[in-house]
Amino acid sequence: MRRGWKMALSGGLRCCRRVLSWVPVLVIVLVVLWSYYAYVFELCLVIYLIFYHAIFVFFTWTYWKSIFTLPQQPNQKFHLSYTDKERYENEERPEVQKQMLVDMAKKLPVYTRTGSGAVRFCDRCHLIKPDRCHHCSVCAMCVLKMDHHCPWVNNCIGFSNYKFFLQFLAYSVLYCLYIATTVFSYFIKYWRGELPGVRSKFHVLFLLFVACMFFVSLVILFGYHCWLVSRNKTTLEAFCTPVFMSGPEKNGFNLGFVKNIQQVFGDNKKFWLIPIGSSPGDGHSFPMRSMNESQNPLLANEEPWEENEDDNRDYPEGSSSLAVETET
């Protein structure tokens, strides 16, 4: 009976956590809906409404895609078979377990390793992790090319939706900037006492304050992710250097500026601004700098980009102030 009570309590806590995880999303939705009402119906800035609605459509479209595009998980060939799983779990010698994973990984396109040089294995999902794949403790699954878990979209950002997340940040910055610049003239009128109506005064003040506040935080976050894209890094890789079979290499996936952008947005520039999936590949394997250099000797003589000293340090998980990291 006590066991049943504990299971019921655990289930209730999980249910509460799932409900509460939508609170940040609800806050954003309410703020956006209020900003739409205040801008369109209270201020009635007719001249600006065409451009406003164009930005608003792309802003809400990318936000929707960031929330509801499910994280992509490794396919079945990376999972241990029933027989291999039983052999692995029944084996008590760590060195034999390690060798078993090495033998299994030989059949897979896996080139990254743990800090100790072992094959990256998830003991929760019972699979060999593809390159750049990590386990998200919030989503309780392994996510391909995991970047971070974002509470503001209540979703894990990875291979399947990183493009949408970047577009959401870009259109959010544009949305806040557009509101702030177009409302500023009304703020001047309010300051001079030329703006009639108490309600209009409230909406002008609050619109300008909220737009500026979100703009500052979003432009920092967007700038940080632009830097990551230019280096072809994820947030996790920026704080913990990937380890390859040859050793740690912080620029292991850096293919050059243009190719790095294409790794997220694809080759067709027509789709770069539209929230439609265009990232190349399947998320299980990625081109690496070392392979590019072997195919193109000119890259081997290329001067590496300058990095900050901070890039040489391995940061503990959750140390980023810009994103919530939950990788294990």
From TrEMBL:
It is an enzyme of class 2 (transferase). Keywords: Acyltransferase, Membrane, Transferase, Transmembrane, Transmembrane helix. It is a multi-pass membrane protein. Residues 120-238 form the Palmitoyltransferase DHHC domain. Its EC number is 2.3.1.225. It is found in: Membrane. It comes from Bos mutus grunniens (Wild yak). GO terms for molecular function: protein-cysteine S-palmitoyltransferase activity. Residues 284-328 are annotated as: Disordered. This is Palmitoyltransferase. Residues 318-328 have a biased composition (Polar residues). It catalyses: L-cysteinyl-[protein] + hexadecanoyl-CoA = S-hexadecanoyl-L-cysteinyl-[protein] + CoA. The chain crosses the membrane at residues 20-39, 45-64, 168-190, 202-224. The DHHC domain is required for palmitoyltransferase activity.
